[in-house]
Every structure is written in C-alpha cells, then in structure tokens.
C-alpha cells in the first residue's frame, strides 16, 4: 500500500505562530497554496491555517489581519499523519476529521503535506469515491 511519504508534497513551509495573518496570506499567495501549517517558536506544529479561516475568522469577524497572529487561529491539537502511514489510514483520518489536507510528520518533524487529490491519485477508484463522499457529508 502506498505510504504518505510517497504521495505527499515535500518542502512544506510553516507560518510562524507569531507572524501575522497578513504575512500568512502573502505566503499563501506566493506559494500558490490554500493552507499553511502553523509552527511555534519550538518548530512544533501548532495547527493549520486555511484561506477560509482568514476570511471567516479574521476578516468576517472584523479583525485586523496585520495585527492578528496566525497562532491565535490554531485550534487544539493539529490533525496529522505519519510519513509511513498508508493511504487507507490517510483516508480514514481525513474522513474522521473532515479535512482535505494533512501535515505529514516523521517523528516530530514536519516533512510534507498530503492533500485529498494526492490520496485520490493513490487509491483504487471505489476508495476515492468513499473519500469524496466522507468529506462531502458532515
């Protein structure tokens, strides 16, 4: 079975928890991504920040993205997948937590990101349908 490290996108960049949401938005634009892991000063993963979070939790709430810190939007423990976990485990984790992107960790190190599309390419067609259905409900 295909492992996360085989289908992930490596070289994932973090936004620092102390960096502003405006900085994060600029990083997203420059990198062409819709989500960034939030890392603390200890380089440990604190959560995920999505473009939707920026719109709903910052702009929609009337907060200033140039003063709001990315770390303020990290909620609870980040949902991750291990680099050696297989595609079925990735599928299960995405469905259970209703997420479309997962940071991939090896030990305590962030080594990449795996997205719904990455998993879809790695799974047989019936399992892809199950993934899409699970993420579409809820």
Describe, in short, the structure shown.
Helix content is 39%, strand content 22%.
State the main characteristics.
single chain, 138 residues, alpha/beta, CBS-domain, four-stranded mixed β-sheet, three-stranded mixed β-sheet, globular
How many structural domains?
A: 1
Main sheet record: 4 strands, mixed
From the spread of the alpha carbons, the general shape counts as globular
CATH top level is Alpha Beta
Work out the helix count: 6
Helix content: 25-40%
Radius of gyration: 15 Å
What's the overall average pLDDT, rounded? 88
CATH superfamily: CBS-domain
Question: Can you tell me about this structure?
Answer:
It is a single chain. The chain is α/β, with parallel strands linked by helices and 138 residues long. It has one domain: CBS-domain. Strand 6 and strand 7 form a beta hairpin. The radius of gyration is 15 Å and the shape is globular. The relative contact order is 0.21.
Strand-helix topology:
Layout lengths: L3 H4 L1 E2 L4 E2 L4 H11 L3 E5 L5 E6 H9 L21 E2 L4 H11 L3 E6 L2 E7 H7 L2 H12 L2
Parallel strand pairs: 2-3, 5-6
Antiparallel strand pairs: 1-7, 3-4, 6-7
Helix pairs in contact: 4-6, 5-6
């Amino acid at each position: 079975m295909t492992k996360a490290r085989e289908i992930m996108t490596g070289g994932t960049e973090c936004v620092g928890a102390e960096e502003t949401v405006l900085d994060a938005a600029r990083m997203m634009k420059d990198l062409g991504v819709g989500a960034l892991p939030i890392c603390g000063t200890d380089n440990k993963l604190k959560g995920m920040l999505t473009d939707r979070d920026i719109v709903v939790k910052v702009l929609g709430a009337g907060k200033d993205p140039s003063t709001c810190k990315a770390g303020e939007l990290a909620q609870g423990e980040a949902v991750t997948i291990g680099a050696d976990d297989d595609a079925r485990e990735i599928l299960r984790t995405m469905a259970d937590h209703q997420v479309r992107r997962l940071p991939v960790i090896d030990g305590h190190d962030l080594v990449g990101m795996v997205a719904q599309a990455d998993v879809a390419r790695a799974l047989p067609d019936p399992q892809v349908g199950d993934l899409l259905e699970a993420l579409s409900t809820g």
